[in-house]
Amino acid sequence: MNREAICVFVCTVLILVILSVLTLAVLRRARSKRKVYSMGMPEKIRMLNELAEPFGFQYLWEEDIFTSNIDAWQRKHGYEALYDRLAAGANMVIDTWPVYFDYDGRTWLIEFWKGQYGINTGGEVGVYHAKGIVPPHLYKETHYDAAKSSEMPQICCRLERREEKVYEIYARHWWLTGFRMGTFSKPSELRMMTTLSFEDTAMAQAFFEGLQKSGRPRNRFRICGREVYVRMDLSSRYPLFRRIHRSLVQLGNHIYCLLYRGVTRPFTQTADRMLFLYYLVPSCFGRMLRLAGGRYRTKRGKRRRKGCSPRKEKRRDGMS
Question: Which residue from 229, 222, 173, 226 is spatially nearest to 202, judged by alpha carbons?
Answer without folding.
Answer: 226
